[in-house]
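Let's practice the habit of predicting before peeking. Look at the sequence and jot down your guess about where helices and strands might fall. Then scroll down.
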Amino acid sequence: MENIKPKNQELFGGRRVRSYFWPLLLIGVGVVWLLNNFGILTGANIVALLQLWPLLLIVGGFELLFGRTQPQLARVLGIGTLAFALAFMVVGPVFGVGRIEVKTEQFTEPLGATATANIRLSPGVAKTTITAASSDSSNLLDANVTHIDTVTLSRNGDKDKEITLQQESPRTWNWGFVSQNFADAKLRWDVMLNPKVPINLTVDNGVGESNLDLSKLNLTGADITAGVGQVTVNLPASATGYNASIDAGVGAIKATLPAESSINLKVSGGTGNVDITVPEGAAVQVLVDSGLGRANFANNLNFAHTVNRGNDKNGTYETPNFASASHKIVIDYHGGVGNFSIHN
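Done guessing? Here is the structure:
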């Protein structure tokens, strides 16, 4: 019978020799990950270690080249490289490698002659709050930002303004390992917007909890993309109505809609639950494609249900007063993995 050797073994001097590089690599990654979860390692340690990721490709290539013909050399090279990487992870931050610099900056955009504004906010890893400024504010935008790397404010136009405040892409790889360490640095975006100027608002959330109290703003439209973390949204009333969209990510979405307003709201579900509060007596139509999650409706909404999408929870729901109402709320929900709930 043919003797088949395992892939990670070769005969050397009459005995089988096992490659230790890949098992040690897996053990090393597991140990580092565990120490990070317990808070023993800091974000600087992890970032320092990730600076060496090209070295893994180099050593892996040497292992493939010499692992069978010169196993002792490959073993020494692999163990030595892993020992160097772990040592560099520990001492690197002492010399500034991987150190995370946290900065707090104030960004303002004067109101000037602004008649309308398109504003895009793109936080990175941070807890984000957006509220209305006082009615006598002389600024269109006022933001206090505690962040890493670089945040930029760009502007275009005079009366009809285009404003973008965004976190630039990090210069270093972190692969999400250091996100919880960023939380310890209390990274925040606290943004106030002028309540008098008609604003079309776009929010591209990153990682972190977001509280978007837009209830006192003069919105002409809203496009909110959730990242990783819970997002709470309070939409404002409007005499003329507007379109809004919420694209859920990883985390729960909680949205509160106003009374006496016409709103077309499109919601795309993610992995978290979507919870929508509508005012009592509101005329509401809900188009539901629930995806993998469940759709739940409060009994006191008295929805009339028309099944038209192949599922007993999917289809079109309408309150009895929807057809005759002057103000209507239309919610178009396309589900993901999480559940969808609507109530008042």
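How did you do? The chain has a mean pLDDT of 82.
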